[in-house]
Write a structure and sequence with these properties.
About 55% of the residues lie in helices and about 10% in strands. It is α/β, with parallel strands linked by helices and about 400 residues long. Helix 12 packs across helix 13 and helix 12 (about 270-285) crosses helix 19. InterPro entries: G1PDH, Glycerol_DH.
Length: about 400
């Protein structure tokens, strides 16, 4: 990471934002070409007797098989839990997968190892939290920023909910494994980072208008992670070691920012709510799922366009004309902070620039490329804000601007 764990924790302890910042329980983060071997050494140092590996059929081939073989000659007993796909062939972090994992994980387990990307980590994070045992992260693709966070986004009765559970105690990311990840998963990781352009604006806006918790340090750490990816987009697009390492570091640092805050405010705004809405619709219609980062890579440019065209340009420039609509206090607040809001939007690339970035990493840049039609896009823009109790600009536009 650009910053070390020790440095980030020290900065968090010195922070005067007024919010309670979580301690970082992560003991080590290792991104190396022998990370799996180092994980075995780490497990021995912890004197664990029994561990469970949570995998799916793809992540077992990516890293689980090798890790299982490394553990065979050690005095550590291990079991492998293969999370089964649904009827569409997708592994989903839902109540079915959670119950399967809880049934198959030994009751005397000392630690659980998540071997996979976002979904496997969400299942493992929740199960380890409920079983009151630590979990260890073994990412198999640089595809999401949730590896180091506390949040477990789960589908419960068809609705996407994020449960604050626990962070891993260690991360072992094997660069040889990450380099072999499909390019679409690398593009998804970049898309998840690009979402910070709009999520940070939403977070600042929610703090400004609705007094939602905000921390400038966490904002800065998230911005740094985003900028590191944008500055190195060509290296990431090439999917070679340096680019993969840069992307993985950025994703981990973004997750730590969420961990410190105890919520996903800095990393998840209207663009994520729109993505969750699409995901739920696909599940409802029993359609094959689309990678999380692919969805937010597309939704970010859509949200940027909506925010610019319906909030920043017309509303902010004609505040007095909207007095009856918004109310005196809101008008006064926005008027007083007009320059600050302008600065937020000046740092936001245009929708076409955002789409171009996704194209450069060979990711989808339009809803149509993901099988999402205009009707679902329009419906999501009107309804997705209900999925989270957050005062995003998307919520503001739907509830206060007609």
């Amino acid at each position: 990471m650009r910053r070390t764990l020790i440095e980030i924790e020290a900065l968090a302890k010195q922070c005067h934002c007024g919010n309670n910042h979580n301690d970082i329980p992560i003991e080590t983060i290792m991104i190396s070409d022998d990370a799996l071997q180092q994980l075995v050494i780490y497990l021995q140092s912890k004197k664990y007797q029994t561990v469970a590996l949570i995998v799916d059929q793809h992540t077992f081939e990516a890293a689980g098989r090798q890790l299982s073989a490394l553990l065979q000659g050690e005095p550590i007993r291990h079991t492998v839990c293969f999370i089964q796909p649904n009827e569409n062939g997708d592994v989903i972090a839902d109540e079915v997968s959670i119950v399967q994992a809880l049934l198959e994980i030994p009751q005397d387990v000392d630690a659980i190892v998540a071997v996979g990307s976002g979904t496997i980590h969400d299942i493992t994070r929740f199960c380890s939290y409920k079983m009151k045992v630590p979990f260890i992260s073994v990412p198999t693709a640089p595809s999401v920023d949730g590896f180091t966070s506390m949040g477990a986004p789960l589908i419960i009765r068809g609705v996407k909910k994020t449960i604050q559970a626990q962070a891993p105690i260690a991360v072992f990311a094997d660069i040889n494994v990450l380099k072999q990840a499909p390019k679409r998963m690398i593009a998804a990781g970049f898309g998840d980072m690009m979402a910070k352009y709009t999520s940070l604006i939403d977070w600042r806006f929610g703090h400004l208008v609705a007094s939602e918790p905000y921390c400038p340090l966490v904002d800065k750490i998230t911005q740094e992670s985003l900028q590191e990816c944008v500055n190195n987009i060509e290296k990431i697009a090439a999917a070679e070691e340096e680019g993969v390492r840069i992307l993985m570091n950025a994703l981990l640092q973004s997750g730590i920012a969420m961990l410190i805050m105890g919520q996903s405010y800095p990393a998840s705004g209207g663009e994520h709510h729109l993505s969750h809405y699409w995901e739920m619709e696909f599940l409802r219609k029993k359609r094959p799922q689309v990678l999380h980062g692919a969805k937010v890579g597309v939704s970010t440019s859509l949200i940027a366009e909506v925010y610019t065209n319906h909030f920043f340009i017309p509303l902010l420039n004609d505040l007095k004309e909207n007095k009856a609509l918004l109310g005196h206090k809101t008008i006064e607040l926005l008027e007083r902070n007009r320059q600050k809001i302008k600065e937020w939007f000046q740092s936001l690339p245009s929708p076409s620039e955002l789409r171009s970035m996704m194209e450069r990493v060979e990711g989808a840049c339009t809803p149509e490329q993901l099988g999402i039609d205009q009707e679902l896009v329009d419906r999501g823009l009107k309804e997705a804000y209900h999925l989270r109790d957050r005062f995003t600009i998307l919520r503001f536009l739907n509830e206060f601007v007609k």
